Structure formats: C-alpha cells, structure tokens
From TrEMBL:
Organism the protein comes from: Stegastes partitus
Protein name in UniProt: Regulatory-associated protein of mTOR
Stretches for region Disordered: 538-557, 595-615, 698-769
One Gene Ontology molecular-function label: protein-macromolecule adaptor activity
This protein's UniProt keywords: Repeat, WD repeat
Domain Raptor N-terminal CASPase-like: start-end pairs: 56-209
Length: 1176
C-alpha cells in the first residue's frame, strides 16, 4: 500500500514528529519483494548502436599531385619578400629545381606513410591533364570499392577558378592548363578524399558540391526516364562518400610569413607535432619557457610511436586531445564517420583541428566537407599548451646535461577530472569530456588499473554510458586487454564486459574464440554448479543487497527462482555430463534442429516436481510396472524404442513427469508454457508414427505395415510417461492430464495451440505401396497450409529470462539502492508506514492493558459478494480481506467501503481455506491457500489498481481427498521468512520464501488431517491441531524422526484451533468442536487448565494481545470469553431496529492489535464488532 499525500495529513493517522518507528520493523525481512517479483521479466529496450561501423573503409591508394614549378611564381599571386618557402620542410631554392621537386615529392610521401604505411603511393610532379587522368583512373581501378586520397599542392600554378577548375601544365611547361573538378570527380570516383593546399581553395570545395549535386540529378533523371539521352550515357559515379579538406576559404590567400612553411596546411596534416611545437615557440607565451629555440625543437629526442620518449608522449597527448575535442564537438554520426571509419581519414581530421587553430591565427580559415563546427577555441587546447610547456621546459637540461625525462602529468590529471565528474556530478548531466582520454590511458600500464576502475564506474551509470563508451571506441581496447596476463585487471575487465554485453549482446561473437577451449567441459561445469548450489549461495542479478538467489525461470511479474535440483543425483546416474546435451536434444521441439531449452536446473522448476521427485526412495519416483509395460508395448512399433529402452528412471522420464507437474502449475504462464511443450512433444510423436516406406524386393512382394494398436495414444493415456508414437489414427487433445480430483477453472478456457491448431490425424496407408512412396498427402480439404504444422512445432517457446537477467548488468549496481537512500521517496514511504505501525501498536496496547469488558459494538456490516469462508484483518491499516470459495473481497472497515473484489484463480471444486498477510508491516502481500495444495500471492490489491499475482506454486503436492477435509492450513513467520503448510496430508511442509524452496518435511505421525497450525520463531516450535483431536508439538531444529516432542490427546474431537502464545513461556491453547478449551504448558504432558464453552463450534479465534477468544456456532450466535472463561459478550442479532438474527457462523478472526472481531456468516453478511466506544 503506497503512501497517499492526503493520508499523511489525515487526523486519524496523523503522527507526531517526536514519535519514532519501532526499530524491529526495519529489521524484519521482506518476502517476495525482490526485483524478479516486482518487475516484468523482459529485457531492456535495445538502444540503437551507431558505433559499429558497418561500412568500415580503408584508404589503399594515395595520389600526390604537386604543381610547384620551382623557381617560377604564378602570375596571380604577389608574394612578399621575404616569403614562406619551405615545402615539406625543404627549401626548394637550396637545390636544382628538378631535384627539389623530386625531394619534396619523396618527403611528402614519407610524411603520409607515417599515418598509412601500407597504402599505394603514386607521385605526379608538375603533371599534365593526361597524366593526372591516367594516375587517377589507375588508382581507382586498383582500389575498387576502397577509398583513394588525392593530394593537390597548387603553390606553383594560378588560383582555382570560379568555374570549378584547378591548374596543371602542358607538356612543355609553357602554359597553365585548367583541369575541371567535374572531370576529376569522374576519374577519382567514390569513395575518395581530396586535400587542396592552395590559395582560394574554398572555391574548389564549392564547385565540387555543385558538380556532385549535378551528378545526383543526372542519376535521378536516368532512373526515372530510361529513354532520356542521359540514360544512354555511362552513369556518373555518386560523390556522396567523398571528403574534402581545403587550406582556406574561397576569398583567402595562404599565409606568407617567412617563419612558417609555405605548405602550412600540409604540414599541419602530416607533421602536426613539429609544426605545433614551432608555432608554440612563435607565440608570446613561449617567452615563459627560457632557453627554448626553434633549433632546439629540432633536437627533441624520441620517436613518434614510442610513448616513453618526449616526442612520443607529446604525440600521444596530441592524439588524445584532438580525439576528445572532436568527440565533444561533433555530432555522434559524423564523429563515427570521420574519426572511426578509416585510420588515415581519422588522422587527417585530428590534424585538421590543429590546422584550424594555427591557420586561424594568421587569418586563414581551413574548410572541410563535411563541415566541422569551430574547434580552435576549445578548452582542451589549453591542456595541450600546458603539456607542451612542461615538455619543452625540460629540453635544455635533457639535451645539454642528459637528465632524465619527467613524464607529463596530463593523463593523471585528466583521470582525476574524470573521477571528479563521476563523484561530484548530478544524475542528469552532460557526458564527461575526458572519456576519450580515459580510453587512451588504457594503453599505459602505469595508469591502466585506475583507468579501468573509473571506466567501470562510468559504465555502471546505465546503458547510455555504455553506448557513449562504445561510440568513443572502447571495444578494441578492452578486447585487446582480455589477453593481458595481469590478474589484477581481470575483475575489472569482467565487470566492464558484463556491462557491454548487457547493452550490445552481439559483441559476444567477439569473445567466442576465448571460450572454445572450455566448451568440452561445459556440461561437467554446469552439473557441478548445480550440485554446489545446494550448499553455496549464488549471487543473483535480481538483487545485489541480498546474496544467495538464483535467477528466475518464469516469464512473468511473479517469478519463483530456480529451485535446487533435488533429483540431480538420479539425473547424473542416468547420463554422463558428456552425453547429457545429446540426450536432451532427443526431446527437441524445433524442426530446424535447435536443441530444446531444457537444462538439468529446469527439471525442478515446480515445487510439486521437487517434492515428488526429490528422492529415489519416494514411491512415486519409480513408474509402476503396468505403466512401464504399456510404454514398451506402445513403443514396439515406434522409432523411440531405443530411447525408452535406456532406463525408465532416466532423464527422459524425469523431464516428462516434471512437464506434467508444470502443466498443472497454479501460475498461468508456467502451465500454459508447459502445455505448449507437452502438445508439441505429442504432436511430434504422432508425426513420427507415420509408417516408413519399405523397399520392395522384386516387383511382386509387398510389405504391409505392422498391426496398429487398438487405441490412439493420447497424453492422458500414457499416464506418467512420454507419449509413444503409434501407427493408429491419433489426435492430440487440448487437455493435459491433471490430478483426477481437479478440473480447469470455469473462467479459464482450455488451452488451444497458438499455431497450427490440433495435430492432424495420421492418414491411412494403402495396403500396396510404391517404392520410395512417402505415403498419402494430407487432404486438401483439411484447409491447412503445408507449413501450418511446421509452424506449430517451431513456435518459439521462449521466456525473457536471459534478457531480463542481462538487464541487471546494464543497470547501475554501485549506486545506493533507493530503499537505502535516506532522502528517497521509497525510504520516506517506509518510514511513514513504520511510524503508523508504532502508533497502532501503542494505542491498541493502551486499550488492551486496561481490559476489555465487552466486545459487541458493531462498527461495520455489509453483504459480501460470496459466503465468507476466511477473513483476515490487515495488521495496521483499515483493510480486511474476506475470501469466499474462489474470490477475495477487500473492505475498508472504517469507511464501510468495498475496495476490491477479484478472482483467485483456483480451479472448480477447490476452495480457499486459508489466508495470510506477508510483509504486513511494510508493502503488504496477500497469500491465499486452496485445498488443492496451491499457494498464490497477490499484490496491488485494495488500492485502486489491478491485483497482480506475484507468484504461485504447489505448496502441497499430495493433498488427500476427504469428505470433510481441513483443506490447506498455513502459518507465517515474518521474522524468519518461513511458511508452514499442512492440511489434508501427513506432513507439515516448511517453505523458505527467501530461497523459494522447500526446506523441511515434518511427518505428523497421524492418520488424520492437520486442522490448525501455529508457530513460534523464538522457540522454533510448531503446534498442530489435528482432526482426530490430538495436539502435537514439533521442534523443527530436530530430525524428522525426533522432531515430535509432545502429543496431547485430551480432546475427543476435531481441533478447531491450536494457538501457541509468542511469549517465552507462552502456553498452547487449543479448542475442539465440542467446545472444550485446554491450556497446555509445552514442557508438561497434561493440560494446566480447561474451560468449557458452547458445543457445535464452527469457528474460533484467539486474540494475541487481549486474552480474549471468540467462538462462532452453527446455532447462529457468537460468544466472546475472557481468559477466565467468563462470557463478556453474546451476539445473536445484527444491530439496528428490527435487527435480524445472524446466520450460521462460517468464519471469524480477531484483529492482531485492536480489540476488533470480524465475523462471516452463511447469510453472506460480514460484520465487525469492537470494544465499547469509551475505551476506543
């Protein structure tokens, strides 16, 4: 019941601020309140994963086109004096023009090879149009569908034209020849990347886009109108996947500063560290680093690919910073395309960010297509400047004195910033900008452990965090780390991979190669795990706070988890671990050949199956000789003869018997799923019964089929054994066998298969058959499609268990649970409920301590929809549950309103015989017990919601049919979470609701039913009243043969009520139908007191606090007695003028705290009586 804001301010339940809740309420365990009980068993909604590049590319060919014409300046560019000269860090005037051109071309190729060493490079130095065409078409032909790079240096030719032309030379170098970008597009094809290092380069980008749009229009026209002239021409290639990088805008000239290289844009793209250090030294801030000169920068030690050296560390930091800037600024899809699709493209664009920063400082704006947002002012550039400053400040002493290089604190500081974001940030916040740096740090052994820890904490924030990490590029990093031999990394890697796989399960393929070596031992490990589960608690994905739970096996909001496999020993004896998988595949339900979803653990999902098949000593465990003989005779003509011949105590019989139990499970989803399995197996057995064609010997000899059995084989005919194929006409019934004393509820329609309907009858074969004849085809008038029955069997029998379990790993597990967060709504609601409980206890105690002299003030009366059979007060709110035969009605006895009325779901000819509130002090659940042994637990009742079944199971599997049975009686211990069940059986069965398994069967030692149960958790005692008049006391700490510690036989008739007082020296109070009330001291063999009440009792209850007991008689009256046996109230009529006589009493119950008595009678009326008003 949830807290209502109006209820909080109600004077009836208003709580003073100084009141404190009873601390015991906080300590009490909660039953059936874990995630598997409250959540729908389904996986989380899959997030669209855009990080996985389906069209990953590789730049395989590079065309280097240099139009320098060394020594001759182009006519439309007036250069300053002095002017920038260096091309690829070479002064072209320092050597002959031809040699300079060749050297520059070779250097440019080397610079590109640093980024993509395996590409095919072709140089075209001062080329003609034909040479460019030949080069481009050749590279495209060899590259096929891969990417080709076209690098154009136009420093020695005029600027590009507005018509979309760049310039090259004629053969004699006497003229500049225009080269149309449209033609270049045609030769280069797609995908391609173009780099333009020349003045006014933005014109080329604009022209390229215009021509690309023109091509798209031509393609559309040709596609719509095949007769159009354009359709007769070769189709132009699409330019959609082309990338462009240009040195400046359409109206800008390249910088001519003599301290800079002439190809500043190319230097930024291919030698970023070198130009970045030179540019840093040219800034005013460089004066803060004494002793560093441009010449000293050339001597910086190390290699770019060695992160332990100064140069390598700077390159590593530069990569991390540019990656971080791009990830934080660019849209996710554009980042994936430019920075994760192609290694060379990613490197060029990282360096392009540096080019934008440097060239903008000289009033030159690099251009890209697709266009990037401005990044030159990003805050991470300050971190780069600091890292460069720290490195360069060490250079003089490193070079001159040979001192050791001190590594940059950059990565440690960024990890600290990331940690601050994780620790101090609010829940709804922007992604951390350091995430790409964290992934770069995984490359470092020094910071790897800390980085993995922080990464795991970030992934724990939820699926969105995992998606972000995958978009950055976490996958190759953590996949590589799986091969690490460092043991300290393994727990972190397991956690990280669990988070990743929970969000993107397709990545499990990447791990498959790591588990192949363990595949042969899988069955052995699985069986060993099942065996050890009996003795060791196993962490559950459903609940981190309370270990010891296994994942559930039911696809529903109400899911008992997997019970221990009690029949494990028998299974193991029947089949070894190596052939277990093959054995289970014989029960394959899928025609495509996939194994059925059975496992040894699933064999005891039903508690009834667990209890029945729990021990080889159980008589029901072994099939009867008649059943076995029948199975053998039925299967004598079948293909399953070899299967049955293995062992009738084998895994096949076990599975079949469990399926029969599950088909009768009280939980609808479980029974429906088992019905599908049973019908599928029976259908398959029927189909296998079709006679196989026997090859004729000669042309005259015919082979007749074996004589069919006289009866078709239905599921219910096979008893407890799997259905055997028969050659007779056989059909599949919709009704699965259930215990003969039970039928389906009237409101639940019989199960009908969702696909394919009933299995078809086997068709009769002619006495004479042709060779290789497969038998008659099904008659067309049957109206079924040929694939209908295939669909019937291959219908997916799936649950959401795996996806739901995986969802646990996708959710935060390090976060403080809401119920433990002192400021959370859930915590405040609990605190309110516990304060309410304390108030009820205190106020009711004050009334009962003063003594109750009368109890006949009628405070509630109403007509119930059905004859009340069981009533139960909620211990703390004003709700009372009234059960009739198969439904439950909830009333607010204070307001006189009906709150809810719903169907319990028990079959016809069964009735509700007992009810208990679970977690009555907190989030209440209602347990109902019916006389067929089924237990059902409900939530969301009496609060304007649809009642929902939390779980249901067969509490007692061997209920004995009697003419006047006690049904099923239960008693609940909130302190221990134990549920005591008994009734028309010869045992008291104890269930542990936390582990959701049977923990003990206590034999009653009597031949009569148990009519009443009462237990005391402090003394571990159970008191049972029986139908033969005996009262038996059991100590559940002792073994089955010694646990009955006392038997009282003073009653001569049916015990209506046996009550064990909860005090340390509490007595046993028992009452029989004859009206004799006896008080027993558990340590003495005889009663210590006897009181006589009215005879013909039909109901009785004892107030746990007020020393009162009330008797209801079939003679239409209620008598209330005090502890001395004095009648304090005698109720025969309903209140009011002309009050009518009350009906025969069918049930009554005291409130656990208040002096209230609820009475249900056979005239459908439900009334509540209380102490006189002056006491209340």
């Amino acid at each position: 019941m949830k807290m209502d804001s109006d209820l909080l301010h109600s004077p009836a339940v208003g709580l003073a601020e100084e009141e404190e809740a009873d601390m015991n309420d906080w300590k009490l365990p909660l039953a059936f309140m874990k995630k598997r009980h409250s959540e729908k068993i389904e996986g989380s909604k899959a997030l669209a994963q855009s990080w996985r590049m389906k069209d990953r590319m590789k730049t395989v060919s590079v065309a280097l086109v240099l139009c320098l014409n060394v020594g001759v300046d182009p006519p439309d560019v007036v250069k300053t004096s002095p002017c920038a000269r260096l091309e690829c860090w070479i002064d072209p005037l320092s050597m002959s023009p031809q040699k300079a051109l060749e050297t520059i071309g070779a250097n440019l190729q080397k610079q590109y090879e640093n980024w993509q060493p395996r590409a095919r490079y072709k140089q075209s130095l001062d080329p003609t149009v034909d040479e460019v065409k030949k080069l481009c078409t050749s590279l495209r032909r060899n590259a096929k569908e891969e990417r080709v790079l076209f690098h154009y240096n136009g420093h020695g030719v005029p600027r590009p034209t507005v018509n979309g032309e760049i310039w090259v030379f004629n053969k004699n170098y006497t003229q500049y020849i225009p080269l149309s970008i449209y033609d270049l597009q045609t030769w280069m094809g797609s995908p391609s990347i173009f780099v333009y290092d020349c003045s006014n380069a933005g014109i080329i980008v604009k022209s390229f886009k215009q021509f690309a749009l023109q091509r798209e229009q031509e393609l559309e026209v040709a596609a719509i109108n095949p007769s159009h002239p354009l359709a007769q021409m070769p189709l132009p290639p699409s330019m959609k996947n082309c990338i462009q990088l240009a040195a400046c805008e359409a109206s800008e000239l390249l910088p001519m500063n003599p301290d800079l290289p002439a190809d500043l844009f190319t230097s930024c793209l291919t030698t970023p560290i070198k130009i970045a250090l030179r540019w840093f030294c040219m800034q005013k801030s460089a004066k803060l680093v004494p002793g560093v000169t441009l010449d000293l920068i050339e001597k910086i030690p190390g290699r770019l690919n060695d992160r332990r050296t100064p140069l390598g560390e700077l390159n590593w930091i530069f990569t991390a910073i540019t990656d971080t800037i791009a990830w934080n600024v660019l849209p996710r899809d554009l980042f994936q395309k430019l920075f994760r699709q192609d290694l060379l493209v990613a490197s060029l664009f990282r360096n392009f960010l540096l080019a934008e920063r440097i060239m903008r400082s000289y009033n030159c704006t690099p251009v890209s297509s697709p266009r990037l947002p401005p990044t030159y002012m990003h805050a991470m550039w300050q971190a780069w400047d600091l890292a460069v400053d720290i490195c360069l400040s060490q250079l003089p002493t490193i070079i001159e004195e040979g001192t050791a290089f001190r590594h940059s604190p950059f990565f440690a500081e960024q990890l600290t910033a990331f940690q601050v974001w994780l620790t101090m940030g609010v829940e709804n916040r922007n992604p951390p900008e350091q995430l790409p740096i964290v992934l770069q740090v995984l490359l470092s052994q020094v910071h790897r452990l800390r980085a993995l820890d922080l990464l795991g904490r970030f992934l724990d924030l939820g699926p969105w965090a995992v998606s972000l990490a995958l978009s950055v590029g976490i996958f190759p990093y953590v996949l590589k780390l799986l091969q690490s031999s460092a043991r300290e990394l393994r727990p972190l890697l397991v956690f990280i991979w669990a988070k990743i796989l929970a969000v993107d399960s397709e990545l499990v393929v990447a791990l498959s190669h790591l588990v192949v070596q363990y595949e042969s031992n899988f069955c052995t490990v699985a069986l060993q795990f099942i065996e050890e589960e009996k003795n060791y608690s196993v962490p559950s994905p459903a609940n981190t706070a309370e270990p010891g739970n296994l994942t559930p096996v039911r696809d529903s909001p109400a899911i008992p988890r997997l019970r221990s496999v009690n029949s494990y020993t028998n299974i193991r004896a029947a089949t070894t671990a190596r052939n277990l998988n093959k054995s289970l595949q014989n029960l394959n339900l899928n025609e495509e050949g996939g194994p059925a979803a059975f496992s040894p653990g699933n064999l005891s999902t039903s508690s009834s199956a667990s209890s029945t098949l729990g021990s080889p000593d159980n008589d029901e465990y072994i099939l009867s000789f008649e059943t076995i003989d029948k199975m053998r005779r039925v299967s004598s003509y079948s293909s399953l003869n070899s299967l049955i011949g293995v062992s009738f105590n084998s895994v096949y019989t076990q599975i079949w018997r469990v399926l029969l139990h599950l088909a009768a499970d009280p939980f609808p989803e479980v029974s429906d799923l088992a019905m599908k399995v049973l019908n599928s197996i029976a259908y398959k057995a029927t189909m296998n019964a079709r006679p196989q064609r026997i090859l004729d010997s000669g042309s005259l000899t015919q082979s007749a089929p074996a004589s069919p059995t006289s009866k078709g084989t239905h599921i219910h005919q096979a008893g407890g054994s799997p259905p055997m194929p028969s050659t007779s006409s056989s059909s599949l019934t919709n009704d699965v066998p259930k215990p003969p004393t039970r039928e389906q509820p009237a409101s639940r329609p019989p199960y009908t298969p969702t696909l394919g309907g009933q299995a078809p009858h086997s068709h009769q074969f002619p006495r004479t058959r042709k060779m290789f004849d497969k038998g008659p085809e099904q008659a067309a008038e049957d109206g079924d499609e040929p694939g209908a029955h295939r669909n019937y069997i291959s219908a997916a029998l799936q649950t959401g268990l795996c996806d739901w379990s995986a969802k646990y790993f996708a959710q935060p597990v390090m976060k403080i649970p809401e119920e433990h967060d002192l400021e959370s709504q859930v915590r405040m609601e609990r605190q309110w409920r516990f304060l309410r409980n304390a108030r009820v206890r205190r106020q009711s105690r004050s009334i009962t301590q003063r003594g109750v002299s009368r109890l006949d003030d009628q405070i509630f009366i109403n007509r119930n929809p059905g004859v009340p059979s069981v009533v139960k007060f909620h211990p703390f709110n004003t709700c009372i549950a009234v059960a009739d035969k198969d439904s439950i009605c909830f009333w607010d006895w204070e307001k006189g309103e009906r709150l809810d009325y719903f169907y319990n779901g028990n079959p016809r000819y069964t009735r509700i015989t007992s009810m208990e509130y679970l977690n009555g002090h907190d989030c209440s659940l209602l347990l109902t017990a019916t006389d067929d042994g089924a237990l059902r637990i409900w939530k969301n009742f009496a609060d304007q919601k649809n009642p929902e079944m939390v779980t249901a199971w067969q509490g007692l599997s061997d209920m004995l049919p009697t003419t006047r049975g006690a049904g099923m009686v239960v008693d609940w211990e909130q302190e221990t979470g134990l549920l005591m069940t008994s009734g028309d059986v010869r045992v008291i069965r104890i269930w542990d609701t936390d582990r959701e398994m049977k923990v003990q069967d206590i034999p009653t030692g009597a031949d009569s039913c148990v009519t009443s149960l009462s237990c005391d958790s402090q003394r571990s005692l159970i008191v049972a009243g029986l139908g033969d008049g005996s009262v038996r006391v059991f100590d559940r700490r002792m073994g089955p043969n010694e646990c009955r510690v006392m038997t009282y036989r003073e009653h001569g008739a049916w015990v209506v009520k046996a009550h064990l007082q909860k005090e340390t020296d509490g007595h046993i109070i028992s009452v029989s139908v004859n009206g004799d009330v006896r008080f027993f001291e558990p340590r003495t063999p005889d009663s210590v007191n006897v009181l006589q009440t009215v005879k013909g009792l039909t109901a009785l209850d004892i107030h746990p606090q007020a020393n009162l007991f009330a008797c209801g008689s079939m003679n239409q009256f209620i008598a209330v007695y005090n502890a001395n046996g004095d009648v304090i109230s005698n109720i025969k009529y309903y209140d009011g003028f002309m009050g009518q006589r009350i009906g025969a009493i069918s049930c009554l119950a005291f409130h656990p705290h208040w002096p209230h008595l609820a009475v249900g009678s056979n005239d459908y009326y439900m009334s509540i009586y209380s102490a006189e008003k002056r006491l209340r």
